[in-house]
Structure formats: C-alpha cells, structure tokens
Amino acid sequence: MLHIHGYFDDNKLDLFRVSVGGKWRNWNYLVGGAYVDFAQTSDERRLHQYLIKSFHFENSISTSLRLGLEQRRFIEDDVLNFRGRLRGQLNSPLVSRFGIAAYDELFIALNGPNRFHQGLNENRLGFGLRYKSELFEVLLYRTFAYLKGLKSEANQNWIQLFTQFSF
Question: What is the pLDDT along the chain (167 residues), one digit of tens a residue?
C-alpha cells in the first residue's frame, strides 16, 4: 500500500473505461463504456462519445480540445443522466518522452434533477507529469475541482493516475 502524505488513504473512486475510435475529417473520435467503482456511494455505468482535435506547434508543444457526451446510470436507480464535457489540454515535452501537462475541464449536467445541479456543475483543473510512447501514455496529475451539488458547493483536490493504451 502506498502512503504519501495520506493522498492514497482515502480512495474516492476507480474508473475503468474502454473505447474504440478512429478519425473523422480532422477529428479523432472515441465511443465506449465505463464502470465507476465509487468508494462511498453507489457505482455507475457510462456510455460515452468524444470528439478530439489536436494541435501541434513546432514539434514541441501540443494542445488538444475534447468534446464529450456521457450517458450515466447509477446502479441504485433507473434514471439515465446526460452530461456534456469540454476539456482543453496543454502538453510540453521536457526530455525525450517525458513532459508536463495541464488541463481544464468543464462538466455540464443536462438532466438528473434528483442527483445533480443542472447546468455547469463541475470544473477540474489539473497539472502533472506525462510519459508518452508509441503504444501508451501515462499521466500523473494533481487535480483541483470545484463541484456544485444540489444543496452545496465544494472544492476538492486529489492525485489522479491516468493510463491510456493504443492498439
């Protein structure tokens, strides 16, 4: 078990996402599903569709824009919740395959009046380290989030490990 200043003592969730994708005009697309194992509340199943546009500047700095739509269903109820996502990311290489990354992502709840504040209800801002090879990418982020719930607002932060494999 990993203990670094208590960051891994309070595991909030594990997310497992599988996607297939391709190219459409100048955009990449991903379609898939996910399972979210929440530590404190009921688990969630998701379907998702993403459009991703990448920009590269002088073979060094790159940015990406991701537009997404998710259909979310929690195990304990039959309501299908829709959420839009808009994410901008900046990547900068440091040495060889290693670099730094930063992102800002907005979440918009389109429905779900019993579970979510409708409209803009979350904003995540993350900074971290990045490793990218031909077959996979690993990012270790420190993420700060503003969450607007049905009855309250909160600021949270956590460490996020993201891995992505390409076949």
Answer: 333 444 445 567 788 999 999 998 889 999 999 998 887 777 889 999 999 999 988 778 999 999 999 999 988 888 899 999 999 999 998 888 999 999 999 999 998 777 788 899 999 999 999 999 999 999 999 999 999 988 888 998 989 899 988 87
Give the dihedral of Cα atoms 157, 7, 163, 63; nearest 10 deg.
30
Contact 46, 13 (CB under 8 A): no
Domains of the chain, CATH where assigned: 13-165 (2.40.160.40)
Cα separation, 98 vs 83, whole angstroms = 32
Distance CA 86, CA 103 (A): 10
Distance separating alpha carbons of residues 99 and 94, to the nearest angstrom: 5
One-letter amino acid at 14 equals: D
> What is the model's pTM?
0.87
